[in-house]
Design brief:
Elements lengths: L1 H13 L4 E3 L8 H5 L5 E5 L5 H9 L4 E6 L2 H14 L4 E5 L5 H4 L5 E7 L17 H8 L2 E11 L2 H13 L3 E6 L4 H4 L4 H8 L5 E6 L3
Parallel strand pairs: 1-4, 2-3, 2-5, 3-4, 5-6
Antiparallel strand pairs: 6-8, 7-8
Helix pairs in contact: 1-4, 3-4
The structure holds S-adenosylmethionine (SAM).
The site of S-adenosylmethionine has 19 residues, from β3 and α9.
Length: 210
């Protein structure tokens, strides 16, 4: 059953016009794809898409793109998108390493990092999606003063991310070491899992300065 599911993930998503593979051919054209001038918010590492679909339902005047490398997780997101019949959400199968090849400067107005892999080992810190290496990529695709919002269950990752943002001259607008469910509003699969275990949710809202 599991194997069948994996084998079918890519062909199934290829049938969904809301899902793009690679996305490099769309650089500079994302507004055309959505058919309007609304802001585009990007979630990196969307997993099964619970957050992405919920926020897109709630904010019809914003366009949302979910980026994910894991096709087995993202096929679930693809199904949710289809069922919801939303017109303001798209999915992108790619690695965050490629962001500057997918988006032109200023195409993105906000970035969400929800429960990103914390990569605890020092030699892997460069892979963290809040690391300076990625902040430089984000800077090249966002509007000036764009907001980045991060949620995590991992205290070390939260503290390290605060430091990465400050060292990158970003303004910390808000930080919270126990974000309430009411304030969190759109709950991802991982957030639900950690909340069920009564674990604290860490949150950062920061602003880029170009
Ligand atoms: C721990 S899961 C969290 C999934 C979801 N955001 C949630 O909160 O339920 C982290 C996700 O980020 C994705 N991811 C990690 N590094 C990535 C990268 N460089 N580019 C795109 N996706 C990435 C992983 O494939 C995984 O699905």
């Amino acid at each position: 059953m599991r194997l069948r599911f994996k084998e079918n993930a890519i062909p199934e998503m290829k049938e969904n016009p809301q899902i793009f593979f690679g996305g490099k051919e769309n650089k500079g054209k994302w507004k055309e794809i959505f058919g309007n001038d609304n802001d585009i918010y990007l979630e990196i590492g969307s997993g099964r898409g619970d957050f992405l679909v919920e926020i897109a339902k709630d904010k019809p005047n914003i366009n949302f793109i979910g980026l994910e490398v894991n096709t087995n997780a993202f096929v679930v997101c693809s199904r949710k998108m289809k069922e919801s019949e939303l017109t303001n959400v798209r999915g992108l199968i790619s690695d965050a390493e490629n962001l500057e090849e997918i988006f032109e400067g200023e195409e993105i107005s906000r970035i969400y990092l929800n429960f990103s892999t914390p990569w605890p080992k020092r030699r892997h810190h460069k892979r963290r999606l809040s690391h300076e290496r990625f902040l430089n990529r984000y800077k090249n695709i966002i509007k000036d003063k764009a907001i980045l919002e991060l949620k995590t269950d991992n205290r070390d990752f939260y503290e390290a991310s605060l430091k990465y943002f400050e060292d990158f001259s970003m303004d910390i607008i808000e930080k919270n070491e126990n974000l309430s469910e009411e304030k969190s509003k759109y709950i991802s699969e991982y957030e639900r899992k950690f909340r069920n275990k009564k674990m604290p949710i860490y949150y950062i809202k920061a602003r880029f300065n170009k």
